[in-house]
Amino acid sequence: MQNNSISEVMAAAAKAQEAADFAQFTVNNLWILVAAALVFIMHLGFATLEAGFVQKKNVVNILFKNSMIIAIGLLTYCLFGFDLMYPGDFNGYFSTGAFLSPGLEPTAEGMTAAYADYTYYADFIFQAMFAATCATIVSGAVAERIKLVPFLIFATLFVMISYPITGAWKWGGGWLDAMGFYDFAGSTIVHSVGGWAALAGIILLGPRNGKYTPKGIRAIQGHSMPLAAIGVFLLFFGWFGFNGGSVLSADPALTSLVFTTTAMAAAAGAIGAFFTSYFMFRNYDLSMVLNGILGGLVGITAGADIMSVTDSIIIGLVAGIIIPISVTMFDKLKLDDPVGATSVHLACGIWGTLAVAIFGDCEDCGSFGAQITGILAIGVFTFVFAFIVFFIIKATMGIRVNDEEQEIGLDIGEHEMSAYG
Amino acid sequence: MQNNSISEVMAAAAKAQEAADFAQFTVNNLWILVAAALVFIMHLGFATLEAGFVQKKNVVNILFKNSMIIAIGLLTYCLFGFDLMYPGDFNGYFSTGAFLSPGLEPTAEGMTAAYADYTYYADFIFQAMFAATCATIVSGAVAERIKLVPFLIFATLFVMISYPITGAWKWGGGWLDAMGFYDFAGSTIVHSVGGWAALAGIILLGPRNGKYTPKGIRAIQGHSMPLAAIGVFLLFFGWFGFNGGSVLSADPALTSLVFTTTAMAAAAGAIGAFFTSYFMFRNYDLSMVLNGILGGLVGITAGADIMSVTDSIIIGLVAGIIIPISVTMFDKLKLDDPVGATSVHLACGIWGTLAVAIFGDCEDCGSFGAQITGILAIGVFTFVFAFIVFFIIKATMGIRVNDEEQEIGLDIGEHEMSAYG
Amino acid sequence: MQNNSISEVMAAAAKAQEAADFAQFTVNNLWILVAAALVFIMHLGFATLEAGFVQKKNVVNILFKNSMIIAIGLLTYCLFGFDLMYPGDFNGYFSTGAFLSPGLEPTAEGMTAAYADYTYYADFIFQAMFAATCATIVSGAVAERIKLVPFLIFATLFVMISYPITGAWKWGGGWLDAMGFYDFAGSTIVHSVGGWAALAGIILLGPRNGKYTPKGIRAIQGHSMPLAAIGVFLLFFGWFGFNGGSVLSADPALTSLVFTTTAMAAAAGAIGAFFTSYFMFRNYDLSMVLNGILGGLVGITAGADIMSVTDSIIIGLVAGIIIPISVTMFDKLKLDDPVGATSVHLACGIWGTLAVAIFGDCEDCGSFGAQITGILAIGVFTFVFAFIVFFIIKATMGIRVNDEEQEIGLDIGEHEMSAYG
């Protein structure tokens, strides 16, 4: 031992430091991957939630759409969107992008630490799982009367172009980021974006036949509450990855806080929806409680990393209160949304983004001005983009199935099969 | 390199040590969080299991209860239970507790390592996911005839007060811990606690109409075996977090052993129930095999960290054998439990706690005397607490729906909707 | 500080190195365990997929089989298979094995690092979760007409003997490994093995009554597309553990690549099946898209760690194209497979193994010769083993339920109950 020179000992210390840094990198990277898998399972949550809330005759169609959306989302994000959203060459508003994102080959560069805490591929797969989410949100809102192929074309363009552009404004380091807009995991960037596109679709599609009659609003009940409940619980489960993974490392303090605020907001959302829907309708409405949980989750998403637990409970509670009010309001406006996606993702997405300004503890960011600017800028861009795309498709291919097909259901009409044998 | 002084090198070594310790802390903390998410998904398991085992007309009701229980459980544990169960100021029997647990604000203290292996928040969210479990166990046993709001009031009081008090006796470092009672992940503290409360509820409620007739016991079949099977598999999945997370670190040796003993006990439980139910009833009863898996899981929970693999197989096998015997026995006593929760969680919970004394390898703990004391003390407290609360609610609000509502089902009776459209 | 001797500093550096190494070991081991849990949930995926694709009258039976298979698989692998597959004493072809695998006791040896990156138990539970998979694959293919107990006997022998023997040829370091056969996570070793056994069973069983009539092939539709879709999404989810865990560490570069190639192949599989089935049948067939996703996953499994992202998309696309072609071909051959397991696991398993030779970047391995040798050797052994076992059971106990039981369904026939109340 005496024979060790100082330089030998220094080398040993440096080697230990390197090993420790690599262990830290490994656990951070592993968490991003596990979080990506959790976000993936949210797509099953959306699929079962939407399947449960539609009529028996449209179940194959909704499952088909959701199966294709995850495939389309992953592929377009790989070929185009990822490079558009996290761009090297970027003026802050629009990236030139690149077809077939460079770096997506297992070269030494792509596989080593492009970032401080995770690899290039871990970043890609985590972000890609997010991308498909916003198209899935649209899927539920336009269910039971939209044509299959036109919807798939819309979903492709939406995930490939619209979502990455507005995403880049904040997460790509664009102009909204520069002005202090704060959206931790995407109340606006993911959820309200899906909600705005859903709204555009609903307006251009019109309501389901028989929903709004001269005699009043007819409740068209979903065909399977167990499927809907499975969907909500799976979404809650996956949200631990959605929000927790958005820490972009396994940082113990932040990930633990985010898990806690996320769960507490969801719990409070259930309670808020329970009491509000009871006072409004005098019954115990399972759909409202389930959507209240989702509303709480959407609401906390913008600020899950900067809220106290008490704040998270208040944010979730308000989101839960919003749900039955918003559902009633959209129905009064004759905007027919079979699954309540606009209430959950748009209304609560806006609320969550504003809540950052009210409760958030974030220096130089999250001011009311910045939050409102972000909500409006992304909302206007997304709504206009979705409206134009849906409008062009409507004018050319048509987007609404005919009355006869709506009557017999899209399962027989589009797929020549039934969901249940 | 020659220029480094010894003190510089020592600082480098200390820095490397610190980095290594932080990496270890990060992975330990991450595992607690992932385990919390896995325990969360057990609530979906309970929801689908119970929904599958009840009749079609009571499905919305059971889903509503289980959605509310997770919300109520998280909130009451946050506001009250956590501080009651893991108390600073504690005489070993009852903590004074504190309304709105201190520390649940993202202060520097709360977010840094309050413990050796995980943060304050990670501890909270993991424990909070456990707390709601015991109320969920009750939910299934009292299904198909309990009033909604009275049940929710019971669940609130039970999770907020009863579970934390008895939990503190062991996991809070109370008198049972001091005397050597051993219950690794809660065969007694979680599962039998749920089972005792279920028993109190069953006794005060009475059986479902038409279950026990002069002509004998009528089997009232569940409405969906796929839902029941989904529930059991999700519970098995989540149990890796329930038991594995109870190591309270990602310690490689212990977590790996716990995963193995947990899975092997579940497998052996299926086999035990398969053969026993075949010899008893001469058929291949899926409900028994599914509950055998759960029985094996409950049975291993008390000692999953101190059993050999062979022991775990024996413990699971015996638990599986217990299931059909216990189900038959409860039916003979006219204690009507639609999902078999008392057999799974109470009977196998007691068995698993005793098994620690038989097989366990734990110095200064887990003696027969200590285990029986723990089972009885927690059992008596919980049963009496639950009985009194249910009794008071019964005397004031009533707990049983009227015969007409039971006939048409609680979905229409309490929620004005059906589970299936 | 001046007082530190060089030897003291060296000890500090060595201690830091040890701590860093242990943190690295902990995160690697944790990932194997989490991956084992993910592979476990694939069994729920198989159960719901198969349940969804069979008729209503055979649902209890399929759930019963799948519940028993996981139990049988874990137990036989523990008692016998693990030691047969990863043998100490091995001539490269057949291990002598050992009843009750040594080391499965929590001794100091068993619990410390037997391997560089994970514990003995973590290795066991991960591998044990794989073992049961291949029997589950058979379960779906022989559904709706096989007797229960004969199937369970077959599954026991198959998991206990056949799977470990061929597995050892590669993963146990046997002769196929020595000759450069490459199969990263089991396109051949797990999936095609299940597929070959399924084929043997299908041949000996014959088709379901009424499937192939003089008037043509009658499509016998599954009873629940939501269950089938849940199954596919859960399998996709679990595959992150199946492939990701097969890295056998949490190595950031490799696990991230494997997550990405796995997901992209699945996505491309959906697209391939979508277009191919549309061109073949002129409709939008949900079953084909779902099986296309699975085909893509099976296809990438052999080389998920050595493919570029572009390669993975091509491999998945081809697998998706194979699905409708293969399903049609098997039907033309009057080989009746209610869930398409032979197309997914056998056809795409072979494709994936060959794809390694086409696209793979693996020095000294994965040549066409080696890949074809592996496919044939394992295929012949497995098919012959399964055929002989099924043949003996057929000759002694019979394997096919009688026509009357097939007509009323196996739920009533074998279990005296229905899946739905």
* CATH fold type of chain A: Ammonium transporter fold
Q: Summarize the biggest pleated sheet of chain A.
A: 2 strands, antiparallel
Low-confidence stretches of chain A: 99-113
* Top CATH class of chain A: Mainly Alpha
Shape of chain A: globular
CATH-level-2 architecture of chain A: Orthogonal Bundle
The separation of the N and C termini of chain A measures 77 Å
Q: Report the total helices of chain A.
A: 15
**Radius of gyration of chain A, Cα only, in angstroms?**
22 Å
What does this molecule look like?
The structure is a homotrimer of 421-residue chains. The first copy, chain A, is mainly alpha-helical and 421 residues long. Chain A has a single domain, classed as Ammonium transporter AmtB like domains (Ammonium transporter fold), CATH 1.10.3430.10. The first copy, chain A, is built from 15 helices and 2 strands. The first copy, chain A, has helices at residues 6-53, 59-85, 108-111, 120-141, 148-170, 175-178, 187-205, 225-244, 252-281, 286-301, 309-332, 341-359, 368-396, 403-408, 410-415; strands spanning 212-213, 216-217. The first copy, chain A, has a two-stranded antiparallel ribbon with strand order 1-2. In chain A, strand 1 and strand 2 form a beta hairpin. In chain A, helix 1 (6-53) runs parallel beside helix 4 (120-141), helix 2 (59-85) runs parallel beside helix 5 (148-170) and helix 10 crosses helix 11. The first copy, chain A, is globular. The first copy, chain A, starts with 5 loop residues before the first helix and ends in a 6-residue tail after the last helix. Mean pLDDT of chain A is 92; it is low at 99-113. Chains in contact: A-B, A-C, B-C. At the B-C interface, helix 1, helix 8, helix 9, helix 10 and helix 11 of B face helix 1, helix 2 and helix 4 of C.
